[in-house]
Amino acid sequence: MVRLFGFGNQTLNALLRSCRTIKEALQIHAQIVVNGRHADLFVLSGVISFFALSGTRNGLHHSRVLFSQIHFPDVFIWNAMIRGYSLSDTPEDAIFLYKSMLAEGVQSPNEFTFPFLLKSCVRLSRLQTGRQVHCHITKNGFESDIYIVNALLHLYCAFRDMKNACYVFEKSLVRDCVSYNTMISGYVQAGLAFSSLQFFKKMLELHIWLDEYTVVALLSACSSLIDPIAGKQIHCLAYIILGSVSSNILLMNALVDMYAKCGCLKMAERVLSTMGTNKSITALTSVVSAYAQCGEVEVARRIFDQIDEKEKDVVSWTAMISSYSRVGHFLEALELFVQLEGLGIKPDVVAVVAAISACARLGALELGRRIHQKYAENWPFCQHGDFTSAAVDMYAKCGDIDTAMDIFRKTPDHLKTTVLYNSTISGLAHHGLGETAITIFKEMGLLGFRPNEVTFVAILSACGHNGLVEDGKKLFESMLTVYNINPAMEHYGCMVDLLGRAGCLNEAYDIVKNMPFKANSVIWRALLGACKTHGDVELAKTAGEELLAMEPDHGARYVMLSNMLADTDQHEEATRVRKTIDDAGIQKPPGWSYVELNGTLHKFLAGDRSHLEAKATKLMLRDMYMGLKSTGYVFSASKMVFDMD
DNA sequence: CTAGGGTTAG
Fold first, then answer.
1. Residue A1 CA neighbour count, 13 Å, CB half
2. Whose C1' is closest to the CA of A258: which nucleotide?
3. CA of A179 to C1' of B4 (A)
4. Which domain holds residue A607?
5. What's the CA A437/C1' B8 distance, rounded, in angstroms?
6. End residue of a domain, out of A312, A336, A361
7. How many domains does chain A divide into?
8. pLDDT tens digits, one per residue of A382-427
9. Which of chain A's termini has less CB crowding within 10 Å, N or C?
10. What is any one of the record's Gene Ontology cellular component terms (predicted)?
11. How many angstroms separate the CA of A120 from the C1' of B1?
12. Is the pTM of this model over 0.85?
């Protein structure tokens, strides 16, 4: 038995720090208690911080129990708890603890408290809370602590808010290599890779020290610019400023990733091979996704399969899952997800979101529901904005708008995000609930959420599908005047569609002629559709010809135009277009339909009889058709042909 | 007296 009487406090802390397992630490802790040393706050703080930072849920829980028994913890102990939770899967507890500390009114936060809090805000995707913490930092006079400045920069960069990041950067009296690194990667993440290189220039001019993180950030700038030449230069720079490169895993991963993302797969694999037997799962995952992005899913899968099962982690599985989704192989994606669950690997939020959105794309409502419900019970998932919005999107796309709205309504305001509003509004739009969409849009503004480009596509199309012409026009105008968003091609497209559907063909055509872009095929198609509905043959010809010129090998366009001509009794013209199709040997790629029943997916093609129950299905359809007819419904085949994609 | 910031892959 160890006797701890003779040990000094610092020795006890050192002893704890040397523990490799929770069990060892528990033994030391027991001895501390047996020897009556636990009343000493300093000793106790060592114990609490060890368990809080152990990285395990049990350890954190143990420290929480000890913590709750202290009447007045000192600021070090508060910080240890806050830090522990900021790294845990429930970072919101860190914020909760901070509030408790303030409420207790005994201890004030110090310069160590805030970086942990800011980290929690980032992990929770809660910019609003982060701003409040920023206010507390100012109030407590910690604006010039370099650690806090860097944590603030990280906060704003993580939310792509480069305006506030710059503000903090410019205003700060202290800046170091970390500040510059954070800004460089912030610019890249915000999609402003070019600015990041300018920042790097500034860094060089001011002779700021460069380190491996600088190189990593610069490499990601090159990936984002798809500039392998610049990437190679940075690769050289790495040798100059760092000396040894191949022993630096972080750097090797970034290098492989850069070459992979730039499409230089040979180079990526060459760098990878220099890692010999130490190939990291990170670098391998980069190569897997790169192949998938180049359209070589099979190659990606082969590499993925060659990776040692024990090496594979959630990220590499998710990479393969998303690769399948990217090329539309949703069934394979979901198969992998189920396999991953079966192997006992715990999917994280990103993995589950990937699976749920694959269900959304497939229309696999019941599988989607199963996955959603299973993970909704794990509450770190519910805290995550991406999880909620993916679920809303899935239910809406699978036709269950009630559940989608239910989830939206049950989400507390502080967990709502712009993305959640976007999924909700576009879900409502697809279900023809334009009025509700507008209500939600207004609520969004009242709660202080800024609509973005995506929001406007959703809300404008909601107006379009519901004939809300005036609302649509007002919202479109407000984009620039109120929200300072430049309407993009898609927004003009929504307006053309909206006006066209409402029969304002001239107004729609005016938009096409006057907008700052050359109309794309989507816009011409919308206009052509409107001409068809409202019988404007002249404009239809213009739109149709434009469409043909734009997508000469897109068979569906020919079919549309020919159907339209036939429909307006211009049979000669129609035959001419048909002939063009045959002459060019153009074929419309078949459009598969999927229906999910009792957890099984059924695949169909038009006119397809391969399905086991094709005959029964046909009979059922005939019954339904007869039923419809008896109620006086008139079936129009021409409308069907027109709306085909 | 103990401690904090930037990290690549989905």
1. 7
2. B8
3. 15
4. 551-642
5. 40
6. A312
7. 2
8. 878 889 999 999 999 999 999 999 999 999 998 898 899 999 999 9
9. N
10. cytoplasm
11. 27
12. no
